[in-house]
Amino acid sequence: MARLRLTGARVLLPLLVLPGSPSAAEVVEAAEGGFVVAVSARVPVAPKEAWAALIAPADWWDADHTWSGDASNLSLEPVAGGCFCEVLPRWGSVEHMRVTYSAPEQLLPMAGALGPLQSEALAGAPTIELAPEGGDTRIEWTYVVGGHARLRLGEVATAVDAVLASQLGRLEALLVRSESESGGF
Questions:
Q1: Strands 74-76 and 34-43
Q2: Residue (of 109, 43, 115, 50) closest to 78 by Cα position
Q3: How far apart are CA 20 and CA 32, in angstroms?
């Protein structure tokens, strides 16, 4: 467990300002008992294409924010009870989050604490919403975390917000690049 905890701390804490962030990122609320962060982006594709990319995290998740160091080890099963999981080739596997509801092309709420938050007594509730906006799609990602932690959650919120902004920025970049290269995803 110590190895995972140290690796997780490496993943989350050093990030404060990241290039390629999506159009909006915000720590909505932060207190010692928990926090709420929200990030959003508008992408030049229909919800169908945005959903297809969203549920393939191996294509856009930053490998620096995995336990294995390789995003190709990630998978997401977009059904209730489905796992956002990672294979750890030498150690086994890790469940990052569990899908609690799936409305393809619209809504993907999950439950789980990410990275070093997993080793604390915390509940996390990330929700990703997709909404058509003109010919584009608005992606809204809200992450609510609460419970007891040895970390100072009010201070951790900024780092978590930065990590989620970076992840959504990578998804946005993938969708923008795919749209411009092929005229569609």
A1: unpaired
A2: 109
A3: 29
Question: Domain tally for the chain?
Answer: 1
Here the CATH number for the domain that contains residue 38 is 3.30.530
- DSSP letter for 113, please: -
CA distances to 32, 143, 175 from 57, rounded to whole Å, are 30, 17, 13
Residue 82 CA to residue 96 CA, distance in Å, equals 11
Residues spanned by the domain of 158: 2-53+104-182
**Residue 119 in domain:** yes
pTM summary value: 0.84
Q: How far apart are CA 140 and CA 60, in angstroms?
A: 16
Does the residue 115 lie in any domain? yes
Show pLDDT as tens, one digit a residue, over the chain (185 residues).
Answer: 333 333 333 333 333 333 344 667 899 999 989 999 999 999 999 999 999 999 999 999 999 999 999 999 999 999 999 999 999 998 899 999 999 999 999 999 999 999 889 999 999 999 999 999 999 999 999 999 999 999 999 889 999 999 999 999 999 999 998 777 765 55
Alpha-carbon distance 55 to 158, whole Å? 25
